[in-house]
Every structure is written in C-alpha cells, then in structure tokens.
Specification:
By secondary structure, this protein is mainly alpha-helical. Helix content is 76%, strand content 0%.
Length: 206
C-alpha cells in the first residue's frame, strides 16, 4: 500500500503540473480544450460520474470512519467534512466567479441531463470534496489489518476523473478544479494534524 504521504505528494505533483501547464498554454484554452473533446458516450459517463463528488463520497467516507473508529473519531471526521464544505461555500460566495457558460458563452454546449450553473465557480466544491473524501478512505484502508493497494489507486483515479468531469461538463474552469483539489488536500492534512494532536494529548493524560 502506498504510504499516505506518497499519495499526497502524487496529488501535489499532478495537480501543480496541470496548473503550471494550464497557465503556460492559457487557462481558457485548456478549459475549452477539455470541454470540446466529447462524444455521446463520454457525455453520459461524466454526467453520471460527476455525482461521485457529492453525497456518495461524503456518505461512504463518514460511515466508514464511524464503523472503523467509533462514534468519537467518526464524529470528528464528519465535522471536518462539514467544515470543509463550509469553507468552500464561503470562498464561492466571496469570489462569486462566473462559470464558463457566463464567461465563454459562445463555446459552452448544453449536455443532456446537466443543468449548467452560472456563478460561484471558484473553487470547485465537487473537486475539493472528492479529494478530501478520497484521502480519508485511503487513510482508513491503509490503517486496516487487511488493506488492498488497488483500492487506493482506484479511489485516486476516480478523484481525478471527477475533477476532469467538472470541466468537461462546462461547470468549471481549469483553475477552479486545480485550486479545489489542493484545498481538499490541505484541509484533509489540517484535519489529520488536529486529530493527531487530540490523540497525543489524550494519551499523555492516560
């Protein structure tokens, strides 16, 4: 199983590389390049798969925490996930950045079954949530008596696909997704630090 830190370094490397390449080539050009490379099958797939970054990953991560660690640590991770959502929502309200359909109106196509949002584009909430939840599940799997390396790999690929889907569907710009993924990673790391400090303080008392 990949150590947790290596997994996080991989995310950093991929996301920062994508961000730098996007800046070099032009952010809007990358956004439109991803959005314009489409087919009927990928439309259906990404319109469905993008929802993995919503309640499915949130519910599975929190329920797994409750099952594995009991109600106290499970509650901690539930609160941490809620705090992540509140922070992302606050940033969306603060920046209120226009979505691609507002900024790139002539180039964004309507995909069947997808309702395009118009504002609060930055950062991507789906991407932040899916990376936060993915790192939770990878951590839980790594700390299990029997862990499966393939689970972490599949979860990581799924997280990147959700980020890609947000651009493909015309819901976000590339920069929204890059920053959203980094925020999900940073907020997970912060939560892990807080939990470790609480655990250490508790052990010192006993």
């Amino acid at each position: 199983m990949m150590p947790q830190k290596i997994t996080q370094y991989i995310i950093y490397g991929v996301v920062i590389s994508v961000g730098l390449i996007s800046v070099a080539l032009g952010l809007d050009d990358i956004t439109l390049g991803i959005h314009s490379r489409n087919s009927t099958s990928t439309d259906v797939f990404f319109a469905f798969f993008t929802h993995w970054g919503e309640w499915p990953i949130i519910s599975i991560a929190i329920l797994t925490a409750l099952w594995k660690y009991g109600w106290k640590n499970g509650l901690f991770w539930g609160i941490a996930f809620a705090a992540e959502g509140l922070i992302i929502t606050g940033l969306k309200l603060l920046f209120n950045k226009p979505r691609p359909v507002e900024r790139l109106t002539d180039f964004i196509r309507q995909i069947d079954g997808v309702e395009l949002a118009h504002w609060k584009s930055f950062p991507s909430g789906h991407t932040a949530a899916v990376f936060f939840g993915t790192l939770m599940l990878i951590k839980f799997n790594r700390e299990s008596r029997i862990n499966y390396p393939v689970i972490g790999f599949i979860l990581l690929i799924a997280a990147f696909l959700v980020g890609y889907s947000r651009i493909y569907l015309g819901q976000h710009h590339i920069e929204d997704v890059v920053v959203g993924s980094l925020l999900g990673l940073w907020l997970f790391q912060l939560s892990e630090i807080i939990l470790n400090q609480r655990t250490s303080a508790k052990n010192e008392k006993t």
